[in-house]
């Protein structure tokens, strides 16, 4: 807090407002942010004209640092009740403003995430059908067939589309992830060669792994996605070449309840940098400074969401022409704090003769899954929703070995259907599918943590592998 004393002195308001700064002894003079100057002058003019106390928030610039201040002051008047000055205090509210911006960003992500999750669900249903049948055609065609390259392109395109839906689900917090105890340096080592090929020869990559790095709880695939997204952004900011530096180090942050151990990841470039306006929006979904067609605007929004999932924090420091540095702080955990994962049992992909009840409300997805399972030798009963599925099960003369059902169904959900069937069909096993993310249903408590879920889009090979794995347990 600083004291505030402003002598109006009869001078024009436009010349007195720029002097609006901390009082004597509070440090060097600071400049009012250009974007706040007019608003501050207008507020000060109204304060003097209406004879009321001053209460205003504004920004000041200290070199390359911007600080938010809140000024509160009372008018000082002479014996004729003429305003002669202001006397009050100025409080640094930068931390509060940053917290408000974080909350606003979280609300934006939540809103867009709800939309993205719904779009991704429908899109994944389509990709399951397109990619699944393209995979079947690709396998059936001879290597010399003229259509083989074209079908292979369809398969690759669906894989890229699936990657896009995973980005959508990542920042909507519905992307399935598998956290484990890991060393961030191991992740850097794993993707080092891939990064160098991705970034190109014009950019020099310097990795600085910190010694004795503490362990964190995170999905290595998600951390790789963070590093790759930041590295690609850095490459785009250095079209003429430059240096990309990736560094890890242990940090201890002193908090009210004791020291907090963190692992810090910094990704810095020597590129074109960003102004303040761009920095305020870079983590917003679909915001991009790239030309149309060169970016989706999901990269940094995805990074922000993944960091939040890991209970971490991310910040950026940049100036035009001076490069950009992203700093990520991730909390350290112990092995005992982690939930034990699932078994690593990986059976070979094969078919069988068991009976499977398939419940799927999307016709094309249901037909594709049924085709794959029947081609592998399984007997398949199909239904569009839960009530129809119960009727199909009651009409089946033999044993039903597996219920393969979508989680979200009209009338009766897949989880409720399983709850009704399992007690009445001894030995019945269950496999769920979803176009959202199975882990999100488990985290919400709708599905038990140990149930089996296959996320769409799934390939025919993946479906057969998961079915065989469950039946062989």
Description:
The termini are far apart. The strands form four sheets. A five-stranded antiparallel β-sheet has the order 1-5-4-3-2. Helix content is 40%, strand content 25%. The chain is elongated and about 100 Å long. It is of the alpha/beta class. Strand 3 (54-62) and strand 4 form a beta hairpin. It has helices spanning 13-16, 34-50, 94-140, 148-171, 184-199, 220-236, 276-279, 299-309, 363-375, 386-395, 414-421, 438-443, 460-471; strands spanning 2-7, 31-32, 54-62, 65-77, 83-92, 180-182, 203-208, 216-218, 242-255, 258-269, 313-318, 324-331, 355-359, 379-383, 402-406, 429-434, 452-455. Residues 10-27, 292-296 and 335-348 have low confidence and may be disordered. The relative contact order is 0.09. Helix 5 (184-199) runs parallel beside helix 6 and helix 6 packs antiparallel against helix 8 (299-309).
